[in-house]
Amino acid sequence: MLEVLISILLFAFGLLGLIGLEATAINVSVDAEDRSRAALFANDIASFMWAQNSVNVPSSQMTTWNSNCAKLSTETGLPSCVVTVTPTAASPTNSADIKITWVPVHESKTSTVRQFTTRVILP
After folding, report:
1. 16-32 burial string, b = 16+ CB within 10 Å, else e?
2. Are 122 and 53 in contact (CB under 8 A)?
3. Which of 81, 86, 112, 113 has the most CB atoms around its CB within 10 Å?
4. Where are the domains of the chain?
5. CB neighbour list of residue 67: distance below 8 Å, 6 or more residues apart
6. 104 preceded by cis ω (within 30°)?
């Protein structure tokens, strides 16, 4: 009888470990999904810059992008989403850094900020 109780106890600890692993897997999956959304949004911004053939973005367009980023936050999970586009001073001169920052939904601390950064170099 004691052996059966010990085996049930070990089995229960194994199940608790699997539940913890499942929670970690879900968090990693959500992070990957958020990064994918940020990358797609950055790609849209880069496409606009290529179409305009300029890395200098008017402030009205930045307002639109931040508004669209806010829509992303309510619809798809990028809360506190902020877009910044910074032309680079170094060579090549026709390049800019696109940075998208957000606070993950599953993070309780607001100090945990995720970011996606990419550089656009126009010909």
Report:
1. eeeeeeeeeeeeeeeee
2. yes
3. 81
4. 2-121
5. none
6. no
